[in-house]
Amino acid sequence: MSTAVVVGGGIGGMAAAVALRARGWSVQVYEQASEIAEVGSGIGLWPNALRALDALGVGTAVRDSAIEEQSAGIRDARGRWLSRTDAATMRRRFGAPVMIHRAALLDILRAEVPDSVVRTGVAVESVDCDGTVTHAADTATADLIVGADGIRSVVRRAVCGEVSARYAGYTVWRAVVEIDRPLTEYGETWGRGARFGMVPLTDGRIYCFAVYNAPEHAPGTLAEVRARFAGWHDPIPALLAAADTNTVLHNDVYDLPALPTFTAGRVALLGDAAHAMTPNLGQGACQALEDAVVLARLANDPDGLARYDRERRPRTQMIARRSARIGAIGQLSARPLVALRDTALRLTPPSAPFRSLAPILDWTC
């Protein structure tokens, strides 16, 4: 039986473990944290990701724990719609995207893997292309090493050497909140150098995020975020007022430059370790799920890792470039450019976004 070590127990790593085990591999997952857990935020799963989850055998469970997105679009800071998403057309053309809590998705994937497969508290120190993994307590060898250890990946050094993440120029605050009235309109709001997003979760709570231009590592407080968005349209101030200082998440946004390869020897990268991208297309985790399915499908072939690289690298890097461009447009701050952007959004035909999304959402296993 072929053996694999998956480094990283997040969504991509657990998906890889599920996919490889289904193909007959003996798998061990090494996770440096003391427990497998996800942060308290929501995640959008586009139709391409749902197809990957179907291939993993968990699509139904995910849909049962998720909520279908019904309303989306982009507004300006005063609440005027710049563009609307035609949910019915989206559903007919691609299938409906869903929203789920990240922890719920990880729990579903984790439930597919026996406890004996996952080793927590294991910090991998180095990986060799011959399939050797070194950590503080021991070394291990395997036929395949999967680097699913995120944007600061240790495994990536064996494939590409040192690669520095790039700061996108903006920071994000994320929270899951509950307010005392129902909402019927969701989506994003674009202002000058700042954006705000809100999406529903199954339990009636709302996942929201606030994004604004800032120097890298700039300190900030939730009170400052509330003040920054205080003049924006309802219910944005109310959502921020409901955010809990103890659970809100604050992270600068980074991506990776385009890597020359995702594989070397017996090592393959997936997810953020391979193609960390800005979140502007909502495709980061979706692409990690695709990676896991494709890697498992090809890994048994003699040239499987080379084929994985040829199949996944162009696609994920194309999506990363698009996401970065959308972020740059969304974060414009000069008044004339913002006015031009908003006018262009109002004049864009409703069919244009669907044409743009087709190369991404039409993916099948």
From TrEMBL:
Q: Which Pfam family, any one of them, does this sequence belong to?
A: FAD_binding_3
Enumerate the UniProt keywords alphabetically. Monooxygenase, Oxidoreductase
Tell me which residues make up the FAD-binding domain: 3-322
Question: What InterPro entries does its record include?
Answer: FAD-bd, FAD-dep_Monooxygenase_BioMet, FAD/NAD-bd_sf
On whether Oxidoreductase is a keyword of this UniProt record, the answer is yes
| Top-rank lineage group of the source organism | Bacteria
One term of GO molecular function = FAD binding
PANTHER family, per the entry: MONOOXYGENASE, PUTATIVE (AFU_ORTHOLOGUE AFUA_6G14510)-RELATED
Its recorded name reads Monooxygenase
- Species whose genome carries this gene: Nocardia mangyaensis
Instruction: Read off the lineage from the record.
Output: Bacteria, Bacillati, Actinomycetota, Actinomycetes, Mycobacteriales
